[in-house]
Amino acid sequence: MAFFLVEPITACALTLACLGAPAQPAGSSFELRMETVDGRASSVSLQCQPAGGTHPDRAHACAELAAVNGDFENIRSNPEACTLIYQPVDVFVEGHWRGKPKTFTASYGNPCLASVSSNGIFDF
Question: Residue 99, Cα to own-chain centre: how many angstroms?
């Protein structure tokens, strides 16, 4: 009978949940890709919490995403002006925000509009 009392206690003592350790937030990471109509593509990776990856301004991009809970469609535009040169680009995002799958696609008239519309997230 002592065996049954010791076994659950031992199992519980070996897990972080029983020790009262705080739950770790699920990861946030994305692959961002931009393609031109002539087939040229560029891509970067972005990790948040902590900021990392190949994105040129990881900390800013993560702060922008944190403000909208990882929802790219809710990012506020930057009020900068862009030239009216038509060089369409498509952007693609795939990844996870705090463990939840996220995808986003959009088309913009040129790379500047992609950057301004995403408050710099698509500036790569």
Answer: 10
